[in-house]
Amino acid sequence: MLEKLKNEVYSANMKLTELGLVINTWGNVSGRDPETGLVVIKPSGVEYSELKPSDLPVLDLEGKIVEGDMRPSSDTPTHLALYRAFPCIGGVTHTHSMYAVAFAQAGRSIPALGTTHADYFPGDVPCTRPLTPSEIAGDYEAETGKVIVEAIEKIGADRMRAALVFSHGPFTWGQTAAESVDVSYVMEVIAEMAYRTEMLHFAGNSTPLMQNELLFKHFDRKHGPGAYYGQIKK
Ligand SMILES: [Zn+2]
Known about the structure:
Layout: H1 3-18, E1 27-32, E2 39-41, E3 58-59, E4 65-67, H2 76-85, E5 91-95, H3 98-105, H4 115-118, H5 133-137, H6 140-152, E6 162-165, E7 169-174, H7 177-202, H8 212-223
Helix pairs in contact: 1-7, 2-6, 3-7
């Protein structure tokens, strides 16, 4: 079942290694079927070189396996929490990419410092609060999903397509698995840009922070109600 979605999610997982966003098995991508609401995700701990589309398990939104012999990614409850909270999400990506993790480990949001950032995100990419000891001891991966939902729900998952989990790393999403990987890649690039900008800033050059007017000009011309970037969709 869902062979087309399995192929899409398989390709999205393989793209993570091609883009240099993951090493070893440090990443996972899932996708949701818009008709049945079922989710396809990378199996747990399988090397990318050995992964096949037919390995990918199919689950319902409560985590019950509908098809497949392999255990789903250990991060599955985090992905499912995002799908349950935000119907607009059709794909989720998690990586441990270098610069996004650096901000997460510092407990910091990725600051919006320029137009590259504003073309994709309507403000700082938020970092979640730390999980409490009882959340860590309890249903850890599902609680991780909940703190992401907390950090995003006021902004809206359709506008802010990324968050950093405190002391952990980035999760991104989009309408499809492929879009969530694209956002992951862009987020890593803007995290590196922000890191390098701050290095110059703290080295004594006075980098001005981006004005809010410029931030929303760039975000809204691509994603706002009067968007005019790109070609007109027929
Ligand atoms: Zn992780």
